[in-house]
Design brief:
Elements lengths: L4 H13 L2 E3 L11 E3 L1 H19 L5 E3 L5 E3 H7 L1 H4 L1 E6 L6 E3 H9 L8 H10 L15 E4 L2 E5 L5 E5 L5 H13 L6 E10 L14 E11 L10 H4 L3 E5 L10 E4 H6 L5 H17 L7 E5 L11 E9 L4 E12 L1 H10 L5 E3 L2 E3 L2 E8 H11 L1 E3 L4 E3 L10 E5 L6 H12 L5 E3 L5 H11 L3 E5 L1 H6 L1 E6 L5 E5 H12 L10 E2 L2
Parallel strand pairs: 3-10, 12-14, 22-23, 22-24
Antiparallel strand pairs: 1-2, 4-9, 5-6, 5-7, 8-9, 10-11, 11-19, 12-13, 14-15, 15-16, 16-19, 17-18, 20-21, 24-25, 25-26, 26-27
Helix pairs in contact: 3-11
Length: 505
């Protein structure tokens, strides 16, 4: 895939300003591992908290748990990951460099190979005379490579465990304890935000495809008889979903249908459709993603994971990655997970519903946090004649407000520190006094800081300060004693910038 120029610009800002950077880069560490800097960490935590508050509020019976990242081998034998969690691998016979065969074919031929068997990919490589991108050598036959990271457990390493490739298994393993603890109420949601580990053959696209990453997942357990029932259906039935259906792949057509139409015409069950609507509203309303950069992509039976009965991915349009890419998904997993763990463990995972033994169904909401962070940086990045900046939604900005002295003399630095001590009580604030005021502004533009406070000589006379707005660089004059209240209202979108204080003169 040809590198987009915007990718290099974003990556430069991300590493320079403290969003993220390669792990162990002083040792030239392996690809696919990244460290969040001070800006990225704050933004990531705010995204997680926004996700947590939004999705757990969908029901009074949705809760968060925290489980282990190392699980016994038997878990993944039962779940099917050791057998099915594979990527197609090929390598150069000349230089021995390894490649994801599907990625290599897609990049070279601009075609999708999802669902193809190894032999079919071999044929595409042979028919199109594809060679090693590095040295031009001949490519070997495609083989399947399991992406699980194994670990040795115990002093002698006699027991094999695996780093979890998803957060999902912990809720399945403990669901019955939670079911009884929550008084046997359905539907029941168990969310987990945590690390996942996948030994990618050839991590690419920088921060987008990682070997260690963070997932936010919500597993929703429900009575299979209630799949086409939804208590809050009237809330969404006329809401329009943005769908990229499998049948429209060739025409590249996106269809907008109401939730009611998705249920009746597309035969998608109400309980599933309701959560589609809520995911879309999260992106469009909470994250402020432009409508034309969002779609649900339907996966065919051949494309979707082995455990999914219905699968729609959320795709966002990345300039840096030249098109729509998956960032989250809604999966109807049926009874697969509980059935497999019941067989593997020998434990009865059925529950009693109205006197009947039932194995519950599962719908999974799955988010790749890091991918979504990159998407936000891509979508809200702006280039102007004299500056580059991020216009993040207020709820996700890594820095709420920055405080600067106009000059480093005449008592202004001391006054600035006093104002800084006031605002940092209520906000994630940043103090800077290095360089000219213009350079300080530009650094905060690239950090996505929405409001910047300047302490000037007028401040010493009347205890007012200048607040600069990142969007259009206009300024307002505000009294220090009114500052925190005004900033709270601005960041909560209760007032507009022009409504605070007085115009700057």
């Amino acid at each position: 895939m040809k590198q987009n120029p915007k990718y290099d610009k974003l990556m430069d800002i991300a590493t320079k300003r403290g969003f993220f950077f390669p792990t162990a880069e002083i040792y030239n560490g392996p690809a696919g591992f990244w460290t969040y800097g001070h800006l990225g960490t704050t933004m990531k935590h705010r995204f997680e908290n926004l996700w947590r508050c939004y999705f757990l509020s969908l029901s009074d019976n949705y809760f968060e748990i925290e489980g282990s990242y190392i699980l016994p081998k038997k878990v993944f034998e039962s779940s099917g990951h050791l057998k099915n969690f594979n990527d197609p691998l090929t390598k150069c016979k000349k230089c021995n460099l390894k490649f994801r065969a599907d990625h290599l074919i897609e990049d070279e031929l601009n075609v999708s190979v999802e669902g193809l068997i190894a032999e079919a990919m071999d044929k595409l490589i042979e028919d199109n005379k594809l060679r090693c991108p590095r040295c031009g050598g001949e490519l070997d036959k495609v083989k399947w490579f399991n992406m699980m990271f194994d670990v040795k457990v115990g002093a002698t390493g006699e027991e094999t465990g695996y780093l979890s490739p998803e957060t999902a298994q912990n809720p399945y393993l403990s669901f019955k304890r939670q079911f009884f603890a929550l008084r046997e109420k359905l539907p029941m949601g168990l969310a987990m935000i945590g690390r996942a580990f996948r030994n990618e053959v050839s991590p690419r696209q920088g921060f987008f495809r990682l070997r260690e990453f963070t997932q936010a997942e919500l597993q929703i357990f429900f009575n299979p008889d209630d799949i086409d029932k939804c208590e809050n259906w009237n809330e969404v039935k006329n809401y329009k979903l943005i769908l990229f259906l499998h049948k429209d792949r060739k025409s590249n057509k996106v269809t907008e249908v109401t939730c009611d139409e998705a249920n009746k015409k597309l035969q998608l069950p109400k309980f599933y459709v309701y959560h589609l609507a809520k995911m879309q509203q999260f992106y469009l309303n909470s994250l402020k993603i432009p409508k034309d950069k969002f779609r649900f992509k339907e996966l065919s039976q051949e494309e979707r994971a082995f455990y999914n009965k219905i699968h729609f991915d959320v795709e966002l349009k990345f300039d840096t990655l030249n098109g729509f890419k998956e960032v989250s998904g809604l999966h109807f997993r049926g009874t697969h997970d509980l059935t497999q763990h019941q067989k593997g463990s020998g434990e009865n995972l059925e529950v009693n519903i109205n006197g009947k033994k039932v194995l519950l169904n599962i719908i999974e909401i799955s988010f790749g946090i890091d991918r979504n962070i990159w998407a936000l940086m891509d979508i809200f990045f702006k280039e102007e004649k004299e500056r580059t900046l991020f216009l993040f939604p207020n709820k996700l900005v890594p820095i709420d407000v920055a405080v600067f002295p106009l000059v480093n003399k005449d008592g202004l630095p001391e006054k600035t520190e006093g104002v800084y001590s006031i605002v940092r009580k209520d906000f994630n604030a940043f103090f800077d006094s290095k360089g000219s005021i213009g350079k300080m502004y530009r650094r905060m533009d690239e950090a996505g800081c929405p409001y910047m406070i300047t302490i000037d000589h007028q401040t010493l006379k009347d205890d007012t300060i200048t607040v600069r707005n990142i969007v259009d660089m206009k300024q307002r004059r505000v009294k220090i004693k009114e500052l925190n209240d005004a900033l709270k209202r601005l960041l909560n979108d209760e007032i507009k910038f022009g409504d605070m204080g007085l115009p700057f003169k």
